[in-house]
Specification:
heterodimer; A: alpha/beta; 3-stranded parallel beta sheet; 8 strands; about 45% helix; globular; B: TIM Barrel; 2 domains; 6-stranded parallel beta sheet; about 10% strand; binds iron/sulfur cluster; S-adenosyl-L-methionine (chain B); DNA_rSAM_put (chain B); metal-binding (chain B)
Chain lengths: ~260, ~425
């Protein structure tokens, strides 16, 4: 059999179903594309095999991965998936094949090129996940919802959902990813994914207009606090920027110059 | 009202900032009954412009103080603006900052107003209010006021995740000179009490699961560096003493920032000893995570830490007979002692060497600082040629960074044989 190009729906379960099919039909893969990309690149349209996403298939693969490298190894691959990095599907497939082929603890083989690449990506996605837990800034709106906008480098909202749910169990909140145009919404039950229509303006000005009366006070106080804790004699802007890279500043109210 | 509270915040945050502790970890308080917050994430929500982690709302309840410690901005004789928060103000600030994801919790300290118990009682009341009235499960760190009663300290421990008393000056003589109203005995007493309580609570918890928590994130302390002419030997040994005798979670080191014209202290404009502070933190890590004893790092022969190289490297250079370490065979404890190898890379080495014999190129990929490590290791396909070099020369190579040429020369030579 020659090499095949496979196409899946772009979801994590879809990719796991694809991996299932690779084992079931003994495909040898030349490329993996998502349906969206496939439409754009006519190149593949003829010889493309479409994978059907099915819970049974993805669950089997999940179980297989967890049995061989544990929950942690599985989550690492999910991180790689959310990195949206080019070629991530093939990397995940190859790594799974390696994991399932080797007996012990293969996810700890730091000397293996693919494993190492996985770890590298996991490191940067984790860093972004961690940064989002830190840098999300809620603004209280008139209707009692705590609202935050984010623009993460990777698609990390699924990775921070539980953290915010556990922590802010008694308040309504929304975290919206403006880059990927979807958000998380919590109002006391389960966290839901939401999308805003284009009529919703998500700039700071519109949000301020919808802000609760106490919002300006606490935002100003936080801004003030940030200035007060600074020790001038120790100033080290290089270190500061290393910890809080400039691209995050526009969503951090302590970094915004406040008038008055 | 907005501007008044803003002024208070600026005064009382400014006065609290010299306490460098920022940790919000070590406790795993769960969010109970759909309340607010939890601990355990230990997040730095932002960093100051001097690069320090901001994880807690760190403020004083008041900067009024009846004491006159020379190194402190809040000392009685200092001519500064004074302010005091009300209990409710601190509670509101904490809750509102927390809900906006600015902070992990509250770090509350205070100058001594009227007397120790009067002050301590208010600190405790704030923590109690947060826990009981607001079902707040975020992090609370309370400073124990020297001289406060055991009853109040006990109550504080019921609500706080962490308690701390800052020793500030590691030597009794230094303390007498700079903080005549304080003495070590009085400061050690509550440390001992808290340490015993924590132990006791742990024991009781084994038998009765519902035993209430007592300062689950333990206690910490801080020492000021460079205010009282103390040596690193004294500081490091004091730290080790705290870690072993009182099971301290953390000891913090704060380079003295000159704030006074007092002749007993470094003059205003003197540089903050940041490098020394950093070397002390590195030493602290060696004590806590690398299995080092204080004596191995600073002793009567070497009472001061090297400023130009890190303490692990200087230990290695003084103990060349322990090297080279074979990374494919050596036990974990010895891998940890290789300069340039951190805890994480040591663990990676142990995991990876199960799969294949490690070579230099593997080690490079594991994130080891090879510019240091290469003088102290041997591995597959790499013979250590530096082991019998004098440590002074190795130090010189590392510092000048010009050693790469030397390595090349050696390896081409090696290929010839
Ligand atoms: S007791 Fe505390 S607040 Fe008061 S002067 Fe001494 S160090 Fe400062």
């Amino acid at each position: 059999m020659g090499q095949q190009a496979l196409c899946y729906d772009g979801t994590w379960k879809g990719l796991l179903s694809l991996i299932f099919d690779v084992y079931a039909y003994k495909y040898s893969i030349s490329a993996i594309v998502t349906e969206n990309n496939a439409i754009q690149s006519l190149l593949f349209t003829s010889a493309l095999i479409h994978v059907v996403t099915e819970d049974i298939k993805s669950a089997r693969v999940t179980k297989g991965i967890i049995t061989s490298v544990g929950k942690k190894g599985y989550l690492e691959l999910y991180h790689v998936f959310l990195s949206e990095k080019e070629g991530r599907e093939l990397l995940i497939l190859r790594t799974v094949q390696y994991y399932l082929g080797v007996k012990e603890q293969a996810s700890k083989n730091y000397a293996h090129a693919d494993v190492l690449e996985v770890k590298k990506i996991v490191k940067s996605v984790s860093r972004e996940r961690h940064r989002m837990k830190a840098f999300i800034r809620f603004q209280l709106l008139k209707d009692g919802v705590y609202f935050a906008i984010a623009e993460p480098d990777f698609n990390v909202l699924p990775l921070i959902s539980k953290h915010f749910k556990d922590r802010y169990a008694d308040q309504k909140w929304i975290i919206y990813d403006v880059k990927r145009k979807y958000g998380l919404f919590y109002d006391g039950g389960e966290v839901q994914e939401i999308e805003f229509g284009t009529e919703n303006r998500l700039d700071q000005k519109s949000i301020s207009l919808a802000g609760h009366e106490s919002e300006i006070l606490y935002s100003t106080l936080w801004n003030q606090y940030f200035k007060s804790v600074n020790i001038r004699e120790r100033k080290n802007l290089k270190l500061h920027i290393q910890h809080v890279p400039k691209r995050y500043w526009k969503y951090l109210n302590e970094k915004i110059e406040m008038g008055g | 009202m907005g501007s008044r509270i803003q002024e208070k915040l600026s005064i009382l945050a400014d006065a609290a900032k010299y306490d460098v502790s920022c940790s919000s970890s070590g406790s795993d308080r769960k969010n109970k009954d759909k309340g607010l917050g939890n601990t355990g994430a230990g997040i730095c929500h932002t960093y100051t412009e001097d690069g320090r982690c901001v994880s807690l709302l760190k403020i004083l309840l008041t900067n009024h103080c009846i004491f006159d410690c020379a190194y402190c901005v809040s000392r009685r004789s200092n001519d500064v603006k004074r302010a005091a928060f009300t209990v409710q103000e601190v509670v509101d600030l904490t809750i509102n900052f927390y809900r906006r994801n600015y902070i992990e919790g509250l770090f509350l300290s205070s100058g001594i107003f009227q007397n120790a118990d009067f002050t301590m009682e208010r600190l405790v009341r704030i923590a109690k209010k947060l826990r009981k009235e607001h079902n707040f499960n975020g992090y609370i760190h309370l400073k124990t006021i020297p001289g406060a009663s055991e009853e109040l300290i006990f109550e504080a421990g019921l609500y706080a995740d962490r308690l701390s008393i800052n020793l500030e000056i590691p030597t009794e003589a230094g303390l007498k000179l700079l903080a005549p109203e304080k003495n070590h005995r009085e400061m050690i007493h509550p440390i001992k009490y808290i340490s015993n309580r924590i132990l006791q609570t742990k024991e009781e918890k084994k038998i009765i699961k519902s035993t209430p928590k007592f300062a689950p994130a333990g206690q910490s302390t801080q020492m000021i560096i460079g205010a009282a002419k103390e040596s690193d030997l004294q500081i490091v040994h004091a730290a080790q003493y705290f870690y072993t005798h009182y099971k301290m979670k953390r000891v913090y080191y704060s380079g003295y920032v000159p704030i006074s014209n007092d002749l007993r202290l470094p003059a205003i404009g003197t540089e903050v000893p940041l490098v020394r502070e950093n070397r002390l933190y590195q030493t602290d890590w060696l004590l806590r995570f690398y299995g080092f004893e204080a004596d191995e790092i600073v002793n009567d022969m070497n009472p001061l830490l090297d400023l130009d190289i890190d303490p692990k490297l200087s230990w290695a250079l003084r103990n060349m007979d322990r090297f080279p370490v074979d990374v494919n065979r050596a036990p974990y404890e010895m891998i940890l002692r290789i300069p340039g190898v951190g805890v994480r890379s040591a663990k990676k080495i142990l995991a990876a060497r199960n799969f294949e014999k490690l070579r230099l190129e593997h080690l490079q990929k594991l994130g080891i600082a090879m510019n240091k490590a290469k003088y102290f290791i041997s591995c597959h396909g790499y013979i250590q040629r530096y082991a019998d070099q004098q440590s002074e020369r190795i130090k010189h190579f590392i510092l000048s960074g010009s050693s790469s040429k030397y390595v090349k020369a050696v390896s081409t030579q090696l290929n010839l044989f």
